[in-house]
C-alpha cells in the first residue's frame, strides 16, 4: 500500500505540497507541522508512489468539538478523539482518488483503535467535500470560536462520529 507513516525525510515534500495547496492562508511553519507528527507519529501518513510523496495527512488526538489554532505548536492530548489537522494532495496528483484512499486509511485506523470520532476544520470551500464524507457540523463553543478566528473567514468545524 502506498500509504505509510511520515518519516523525517518526507518533510521537504510535505512543506512543498502545503504551500501549493493552501492559497487562502499562510502556510504553517515546519515546527508547527512537525508538532502534529510528534504528538502522534503513527497517525500522520503520506501517500507515496514511485518514491515520490504525493499527499499527506496529519492526524492527532484532540478534544472533540475543538480545534487547535493555526500556527501554534501542539502537545499530546490524552483523549479518545482525533483531529484531522491537514490532508493535502499535490496539484499534479489531484483527481486520482488519493484523498479517498487517505481518508479510508484514517477511518479504518480510527475504528481499529476504537476512536470515538474525528474533527476537522474545512477551509477553502472544502465544506461540501467533507459533508459528503459523512462529517457533520458541530456545536460551537467559546473555545472553538477563538480557535477558528485563526482560520480564514469561511472555515467551519465538522465532526465524524466513529463509535
UniProtKB/TrEMBL annotation:
Q: Which CDD domains match?
A: NAT_SF
Which superkingdom heads the taxonomic lineage of this protein's source?
Bacteria
The record's Pfam families line, in alphabetical order, gives: Acetyltransf_1
Entry's SUPFAM superfamilies?
Acyl-CoA N-acyltransferases (Nat)
**Occurrences of domain N-acetyltransferase (ranges):** 1-163
Q: What is this protein called?
A: N-acetyltransferase
Organism field: Shewanella litoralis
| Phylogenetic lineage | Bacteria, Pseudomonadati, Pseudomonadota, Gammaproteobacteria, Alteromonadales
Amino acid at each position: 500500500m502506498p500509504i505509510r507513516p511520515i518519516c523525517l525525510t518526507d518533510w521537504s515534500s510535505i512543506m512543498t505540497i502545503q504551500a501549493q495547496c493552501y492559497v487562502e492562508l499562510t502556510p504553517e511553519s515546519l515546527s508547527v507541522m512537525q508538532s502534529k507528527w510528534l504528538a502522534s507519529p503513527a497517525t500522520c501518513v503520506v501517500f507515496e508512489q514511485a518514491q515520490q510523496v504525493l499527499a499527506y495527512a496529519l492526524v492527532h488526538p484532540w478534544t472533540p468539538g475543538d480545534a487547535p489554532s493555526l500556527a501554534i505548536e501542539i502537545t499530546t492530548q490524552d483523549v479518545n478523539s482525533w483531529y484531522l489537522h491537514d490532508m493535502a494532495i499535490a496539484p499534479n496528483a489531484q483527481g486520482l482518488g488519493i484523498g479517498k484512499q487517505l481518508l479510508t486509511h484514517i477511518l479504518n485506523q480510527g475504528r481499529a483503535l476504537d476512536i470515538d470520532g474525528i474533527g476537522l476544520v474545512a477551509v477553502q470551500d472544502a465544506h461540501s467535500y467533507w459533508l459528503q464524507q459523512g462529517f457533520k457540523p458541530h456545536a460551537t463553543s467559546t473555545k472553538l470560536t477563538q480557535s477558528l478566528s485563526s482560520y480564514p473567514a469561511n472555515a467551519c468545524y465538522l465532526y465524524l462520529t466513529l463509535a
